[in-house]
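## retry 2 of 3
previous attempt timed out at serialization; input unchanged, resubmitting
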Amino acid sequence: MGASSSSDRKVSSEQREIESLAAAAGALPMLRKAFADLADPQTSAVPVASLQRCLSLCFDEPIRSAPRAPESFSGLLENLGASIVDVFFVADKGGLSWVEFVRGYVKCCGRMAASMVLANLLRVFALAANKAGHQVDLQFESDEADHCKVGGHLTPADVLMLLWMCWTMLWSSKVRELPKGKAALFLPDIGCLVSSAVVSCVENGSSLDLWNFDFLGSEVQLPARKFVAWALATVPTLPDCFSQFVHERLGNSTISQQDELEPSNSSSGDITSVEACGAHLLTPGRAWAISLTVRNALREEILTHCFCSNRDKIEESLLYRSSLHGKGLNRFWSNTEGYLGPLLLLVSGYSGDSHETNTRDKKWVIGVLIQQGFESRDHFYGSPGNLYAIDPLFSAYLPSGKEKNFVYSHLHPSARVYEPHPKPVGLGFGGTIGNERIIIDEDFARITLRHHAVDKTYQSGPLFPNQGYLPVDAFISEVEVWGLGGTKAKEVQVLFKNREQLFTEQRRKVDLKTFASWEDSPEKMMMDMMNDPNRVQREDR
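## retry succeeded, writing output
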């Protein structure tokens, strides 16, 4: 009896401790409901098979709209739920008790360092891939401080599958909002992320031809230690895909039991929307890569461009596209003026001779994320934003904190005035006036990119492969501006445009009364003086 009482007190103390950790994460009420939904009434424990089904990802629909996926990728998804349970949940013969159920959740989603969450993600990936027959060379070692060191190597194919697994976790939480018939798995082109990992982790990676790099056929090895450092620096919110997936699945345990993400037939309309999203510079894969660098509310706005279920909403946020609205700063301004929310500007360009095919094939895409709308000023302005090298190599350059030359957008003055030292006309980001890190000319025909040494506003790094130290004068293929301020910012812009149109119409109206008093008008007197300045003007008395 005494031993039993002591054991009960020990279990009670252990339960209070683990529940306090779950409460600190704000998940205790959700876990109580999930346990009640999944537990067997007879044993008061969660069967392992039920939890595996709740955390599983099974898609019978063919994987499409992406570069060819490795054959073992479908098997990896099928073993994902079982791998999560094997790594984090310890079950008895009767199933998972309440304490072990909560403990497993805390191991997955509790408060911990980002490096630990990333190690958990890699552990699940390695186990699921090995179960699918795709051997991954990763070793894990935990120390006394409960930190996990990752050793071994990854191949580019491993990185591609890992990123697609994270994408699928995110996708699974979004497809529940889609009507049935449009839940087929879609894998985006994320070659820019794989290239970034390879260049950062492999010796002499900058010498690779990234425009023709074969991820699946390459045998280069990426040290796991360097890959972890790359992921934490370049895509810091990538581990959140795993913890959010587990939290969302347990929070929707009732739906998971009834409708285990039922595969459904894709419709032609869904395929059309996917193709339409891929026609923009902001493809789903590029939007997801950018979202992995953002932690504030903008992340959700950017994520709406990853899932092409609501094509109309996506098209509404496209403020300007040079091939659609016309090239030039004036066309750009007429479509972006009055939008006071965050904006994402993308530019596709290429260096070299505009008539050479080999240079036109090596296009690159860069981006700028700003927190407020554009204004016509002859000096730098704005709040902290980000620069992006997007394709073929992805990198994010955050504010350095040394200077505040974030945005420069200057139009020709509406009135002709003498300027002894005229300021350049165009769009610029970083650097100083006349020595900008990025400057787009007035006609949107050419863009000049300078080395990061001239810029103290944003972090250092190349904007496209092999940029070099000298300024690069390149040709522009396409320019896009996406509004990320939501419905409210768009409504404010519409009101602004309506007001400006009203003022324009009022200025065009002719007041006939002014013609009746032309002889007495100051305008006539000035014109007479200009025609004959020596003429004596007398006042009639």
